[in-house]
Design a protein that fits this description.
The relative contact order is 0.08. Helix content is 88%, strand content 0%.
Length: 316
């Protein structure tokens, strides 16, 4: 009944958690915490103003153009699918294989339509919660200001014999979440910038929208890069197969840079999960909560591993 009112607090806690290391850095330089928070906020808003003043008008224009051309693009995709169907229907492929290809193309078409609908629904959902989003930085300010007091208050509610172990658990959870949340958000921003820049240089339409979407989906390990590349390749394919090939190559190069240079430098080994475990938690998250479940699967799994390791150590 009240979950709609919880969004500002969830976003505020997320924002405070992301900004707390920067606040701690300025506080370590001798600033009072309130002035350290103010300094971080000023720097953040300056960056947002500089970037927003240049990118928001472009984003709005691309969004309007995308909305106007979406029916035409959907019709063109359907036309390509029909053309592909007619080509292999006239071939010497076995009947069962042609039926399987038909079913596969129908599934792809339905998936693309569902994906576009979910993106549009997400944008509308974000706009409807604009007031909550606007008040989140204010709530985050209070959380940052009383960060240490809040943690101390939580520890005081626990029996004395549990406090030391709780501090150890919170320290390990923070280390893991730093890798998953702070690190992955940083990687996602870098990937979004690289994708938008590359698509702009290739003269692909809606470069900014596709770049933002690719960066957001890059938070999903392994599969996010593939899912994020799909809109860019599809839009390029509507122009020419050669352009689609160039876009696919662009995403491949960025993914290799992320996997070999960007990711290891920023994330390190803080997550501490085996790749098989990551894929397992992704599948479980997708089954339970769809795209949101995939986003939350790895953080929840990483925290669960920390809690389980401490529990086993206590029991043994």
């Amino acid at each position: 009944m009240v979950r709609g009112g919880l969004y500002p607090f969830i976003i505020a806690f997320f924002l405070a958690y992301i900004l707390n290391p920067a606040v701690g850095y300025f506080e370590g330089k001798g600033m009072k915490r309130v002035w350290a928070i103010a300094c971080v906020y000023v720097l953040l808003f300056i960056c947002l103003f500089i970037v927003g003043s240049r990118l928001i008008p472009v984003f709005i224009r691309e969004l309007e153009s995308f909305g106007q051309e979406l029916p035409h693009m959907a019709a063109k995709v359907e036309e390509l699918i029909v053309s592909l169907q007619s080509q292999y229907q006239q071939s010497a492929l076995p009947y069962s294989l042609r039926v399987a290809l038909d079913n596969g193309l129908i599934t792809i078409q339905a998936t693309l339509q569902e994906f576009v609908a979910s993106v549009v629904d997400g944008l509308v959902h974000t706009i409807t919660h604009f007031i909550g989003l606007a008040i989140s930085p204010v709530l985050a300010f209070y959380l940052l200001h009383d960060w240490h007091e809040l943690i101390a208050a939580v520890l005081r509610t626990l029996p004395a014999r549990w406090r030391h172990e709780t501090v150890l658990i919170l320290r390990d959870v923070d280390r893991v979440l730093s890798g998953v949340i702070r690190g992955q958000v940083t990687v996602a921003v870098i990937v979004g910038i690289l994708v938008s820049t590359g698509l702009y240089l290739l003269d692909v339409r809606y470069a900014l929208i596709i770049g933002i979407l690719a960066g957001a989906l890059d938070v999903i390990p392994y599969f996010g890069a593939f899912i994020g590349a799909t809109p860019g390749v599809t839009v390029a394919l509507l122009s020419s197969p050669l352009l689609a090939l160039k876009v696919a190559l662009l995403f491949f190069v960025i993914h290799q840079l992320e996997g070999t240079i960007i990711g290891p430098k920023i994330l390190g080994e803080n997550v501490g999960l085996h790749p098989l475990s990551v894929i397992f938690f992704l599948f479980i998250g997708e089954e339970l909560g769809g795209l949101v479940g995939m986003l939350l699967g790895v953080p929840v799994g990483a925290v669960g591993k920390v809690l389980l390791s401490h529990l086993l150590r206590i029991m043994i």
